[in-house]
C-alpha cells in the first residue's frame, strides 16, 4: 500500500539526497561538476567495510572512518587536480573531463584491490529489527538512515543559512572574485567544501551499502547518474533542491518498481530528468546558470 | 605483395577498427568544437549499429541502405532530444548525455524481440570492406575540413569561446549547437553501422559509459585544435592494447589516467599546432 | 531610432529600473551616464535581448524588440560592446572581426563544401572588409595576430571593429574607454567621432565626464534606476538634480 511505499522511499530518498547534496555543494561553490563524486561514495563504503572486517570496529566507528577517508580523498582530488585547473581558468568542461578520468582510475583501482564481486557487511553488525508503526513496517536500519541523513542535512542547512561560514560560501557561489575582494579565504573554503562534500558522499556510500547489502567497485556509477538527475530535478547548486529532489527520486523509483517492474528502475531517473529538462530546465529551485567570474 | 597479404590477413581488423574509432573521435571533436560535451555519441553509435544490423538481418536490406538507416536513426534522435537540452547551456547537455547512454542501454535490454536483449545480435553479415571504412573516413574528414573553413566553423569557434558574445554577433547559437550535435550523432551512427558489420556481433554493453570514455579519451589525447588530433588519438588508443599486451587488462584504467594527465599537463592534447610550432621554432612568435 | 518607453525591470523583489523613457535620435551620439549601480548595463542587456523588461516598450525604428532573440536583434541592426570585454581570445584579430559578418554571409552548403566561387568571393570580401574595419581603429597591422596578447586599449578597439562588422545602424558602447590611459582615450574619441560622422547612431554608457561631454550630442542621466535628466551636454552640466546625484564626484570630471 501507499503508506508502506512512502516509508520505503523515505530512506532511499534520504540517501539519494545526501549524495546529491555533496554533488551540488561542489557545483554551487566550486562551479565544477565533479563526476568523481561517485568514486568517493564508493571509497567511503569500502573504507567502512575494511575497518569493520579488518579491525573489528563498530558500525558507528566505520561511519566515522568513511567520513574521514572520503574527506581526505575529496581534498586530495581538489588539491591535485581541481586546483591547478582553477589556477588556469580552464573552461568548465575541462575539470569535468578530468573528474571522469579520476572516477575511472578509482573504480578500477578498487577492482584491482578488492576484486569485482559484491562484498557484504558482516550480518551480525547490521541491525535487522523491524519496527511496526501505524500499520507500516520500517527497519531499524532505515530509521537510522533517515535520522542520520536528516541530522547531516539539517546541520548543513544551519551552517549555510545562519553562520558566517555559510555566508562566505554563498558569496563565493555568487562570485569568487568578489568574495576574494571582500577578504574571504576563497581557496581555503574551496578545500573545505571539497572535503565536506566528499565526506557526505562517503557517508551516503556506507548507508547505501548497508541498505542494499552490497559493496562493489562500480557502485558509484549508477549513484552518479541518480545524483545528476536529482540536482537537475531540484535545481543545480541549491540545497533544498537536493533534498527534495532526492526524496522525489526515491519515491519515483520505489513506485516504479512496485507498479512497473524493476528492470526499468535505473531509467526512471533519466525519464524524470528529460521531462524536467523539457518543462523546466532550471529545476524546481534553480537559478539560471550564468555565473559571474 | 605476399607479405602484404599476410600482414593484411592478420591486421585488417585492427586497421579497420582504427578507422571506425577515428570516425567516433571526430564525432566527439565536432561537438567539442562547439563547446558541447556529448557523451551521448557512444549511445548514438549504438543506435546506428542496431538500426543498420536490424535492417540487414531482419529486413534483408542492401548494405548501403542499412548504412543510411544507421546514419538517419541517431540523427533523428539527436534532433528530438537536442531541442530541450541544448536550450540552456552546455553543462546541462553534458549531464543529460551522460545519462542518455544509460537510457538507451535499458531500452535496448528491454526491447528483446527486436534487439536480442542482453544477448545482443549475433551473426551480422560481415559486409564492411576496407574501402567502406576508408571512404567514410575520407568523406567525413573532407566535410569537417570544409566546415571549419566556412562561416559555420567560425561560428562554432565563437560559440565555444563565448556563446553570449557569439549570439550578439548575429549567430543563431542554438541552431548551430543542434547542427553540431546532430551531425556528430550522424557520424557516430555511421561508425556504429560500419563496426557492427565488421565484428558481426553487438551487445548493449558495448555502447555505454566505457565506450563513451574511450572515444573521449581518444579525442582529448590526440588534441582538440584540429582534425589531426582525433585521428591521431584514435590511432594511439586503438594500438596501445595491441602493442602492450599486458596493458590490455588495464585499458580502462589507463584511459582514465590519460584523461586526467592530459587535461592537467597537455590541455590541448598531443597534436597542438601552437606548441609544436614553438618546439620546432617555425616562424616568429 | 531607438525608443524606450516606461521600461521597468525587477529581479525578484529588487527594482533595477523604474519607468525609464528616452529616445536615441538617429545619426547622433547619445550618452547614458549615472553613478555606479544605477542600472546602465541593464538597459543595454534589455535592448539586446539578453534580458526581458518587466514592463514597458523598447522599439527600434518603430518595431518592438521585446521577445526577439539576441541574434535576431543584431540582425536588425544593433551591435554592442561589453563593459568587461568579450573578444574571442583564441582567434586572430581578423577572424574576430569576420565573425561579426556572420549574418551577412549567405552561401549555402554546396558552396562551402565544394569551395564554389560564391563561397570564395564572399569570404574574400569579408576578409577585405574586416581589414578595412581594423584600419578604422588602427589595428590593421595586427590583423593576423592572435587576440590573446592585446593591450587593454587594443582589446576595446577590436571589440569596436567587430561590432561594426555586423553592419549595425545603432552601436551600443558599454564604457568604451574604461581602464584606458589619457592618450588612448583621446585616440578612441577621435575614432568614435569618425565613426559617428559616417552616419552610425551611437549610444554609449560612460563614466568619464569629459569624454561624454566632448562626444555626445544628447545625454540622459540614470540614478537608482530612474532617469533624472535628459538634454544637451550644457543642460546636463547645469542640472541641479544631476549635480546632486554626483555630489562629491566632481573629482571624476577633473580626473
What is the strand and helix layout of this fold?
The complex is a heterotrimer of chains A (293), B (285) and C (255).
Chain A: H1 2-30, H2 37-55, H3 59-87, H4 93-114, E1 130-133, E2 136-139, H5 140-162, H6 164-174, H7 176-181, H8 186-212, H9 220-234, H10 239-259, H11 265-279
Antiparallel strand pairs in A: 1-2
Chain B: H1 2-33, H2 41-57, H3 63-86, H4 90-110, H5 112-115, E1 121-122, H6 130-149, H7 151-161, H8 163-167, H9 173-199, E2 201-202, H10 209-222, H11 228-243, H12 251-265, H13 273-280
Antiparallel strand pairs in B: 1-2
Chain C: E1 2-11, E2 14-24, E3 29-33, H1 40-47, E4 55-60, E5 63-64, H2 70-75, E6 78-80, H3 93-100, H4 109-113, H5 117-136, H6 152-165, E7 170-174, H7 182-197, E8 201-205, H8 209-215, E9 218-223, E10 226-231, H9 233-237, H10 240-245, H11 250-254
Parallel strand pairs in C: 3-8, 3-9, 6-7, 7-8
Antiparallel strand pairs in C: 1-2, 1-4, 4-5, 9-10
Helix pairs in contact in C: 3-5, 3-6, 5-6
Biggest β-sheet strands, sense, barrel of chain B: 2 strands, antiparallel
CATH architecture of chain C: 3-Layer(aba) Sandwich
Overall 3D shape of chain C: globular
Number of strands of chain B: 2
- Mean pLDDT of chain C equals 86
Task: Provide a compact summary of the structure.
The complex is a heterotrimer of chains A (293), B (285) and C (255). Chain B is mainly α and 285 residues long. Chain B contains 13 helices and two strands; from the N terminus they run H-H-H-H-H-E-H-H-H-H-E-H-H-H-H.
What does this structure look like?
The complex is a heterotrimer of chains A (293), B (285) and C (255). With 293 residues, chain A is mainly alpha-helical. Chain A is 74% helix and 3% strand. Chain A has helices spanning 2-30, 37-55, 59-87, 93-114, 140-162, 164-174, 176-181, 186-212, 220-234, 239-259, 265-279, and strands at residues 130-133, 136-139. Chain A is globular, with a radius of gyration of 19 Å. The N and C termini of chain A lie far apart (51 Å). A two-stranded antiparallel ribbon of chain B has the order 1-2. In chain B, helix 6 (130-149) crosses helix 7. Chain B is globular and about 50 Å long. Chain C has one domain (2-254): P-loop containing nucleotide triphosphate hydrolases (Rossmann fold), CATH 3.40.50.300. In chain C, 39% of the residues lie in helices and 23% in strands. The chains are: A mainly alpha (293), B mainly alpha (285), C alpha/beta (255). Chain B binds chain C through residues 143, 146-147, 149-152, 154-155, 157-158, 161-162, 164-173, and chain C through 48, 50, 69-71, 74-75, 79-80, 82, 86-91, 95, 98-103, 105, 107, 112-115, 119, 162, 165-166.
